[in-house]
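Wed. Picked up where I left off yesterday with LysR family transcriptional regulator. The coffee machine is broken again, so keeping this brief.
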Amino acid sequence: MKTTRQKSIDLNLFKVFSAVYSLKNLTHAGDKLAMTQPAVSRALDRLYHLFNERLFYRTEGEMRPTRTAEILAPLILEGLALLETATLTTSDFNPAELAVQFKLGANDYVSAVILPQLVALISRRAPSIFLSTAACTYLDAAHLIEHTVIDCAIISSLPTDEQIAAHPLFREDYVVISARDHVLIRERLTLDAYLACDHVLVSYTGSKDGWVDERLAEMGHQRRVIAAVHMFLAVPQMIINQPYLCTLPRRLARQFAQAYAIRIHELPFESQSHLFHLVWPRRQSKSPISAWLRSQIIETCQDLSPSQSAEACELRRPVHLLPTAALRST
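Structure written out below (tokens, as returned):
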């Protein structure tokens, strides 16, 4: 026999919980749910009476989850995902009729190399889907997914969180870019010239060294890094009129070479290959909507211009593979 409390549960309250938990803002949660801010506040009051304690508190302009809310969140989010799956399983699933918002976690490399083709593909097959991106790297992908800030992410190093599922997408290798008229580089980039130049480093954390420096140290060498930036897209303007070098992904270097007066050089030593993955919350694995959207990302990455694929990697130079190599500091 059901209790009065069990009978009175409104499942819409859990949608409010999910929205406030992910957005940390009552107004934004209301916009997502087509509710007014007072209506969202009333829903939180009802959740308070349901669980006999507050689930969110306001601090520094945000609605933060309490310890109880953090405990409840995985259960509620998984339950909503299962309900969505059950509903879609009993209906005709037609991607062309989807009208949902979908947020992809990506850094500027992913946005430049993958996003144009992905947006075109989804727009053609499901024109009512709204796709957006959020700044994301391998460092914070798991946190953003667990807090439903993003639906999935494309990253180059897998998180250890058991609640995160993953699918391999493609491999990427590295090259060096310089100004076209770099005075120290003639026909090809030698190791001596590489070490003699000043370097710009791409580092999400602002670190002064990265995997290149680790590799050079193994060889008994050291380079001079004069600046670190957190975005690849900042690099071309820094080097086109200066005698600097930057080591970055081959596909992105090709794009830069089409737009800027730069040259692409092979690395003068054995390089790493990075395997990119699509990651998402495991609770969403059986959701038809989530599965369809992931399939579009996988298809887009399979159609990338040749450099490497997740299954076959053909590099111009020998590759030094790292088990969980990350597209991090270069």
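Quick read: Residues 174-266 form a domain with the D-Maltodextrin-Binding Protein; domain 2 fold (CATH 3.40.190.10).
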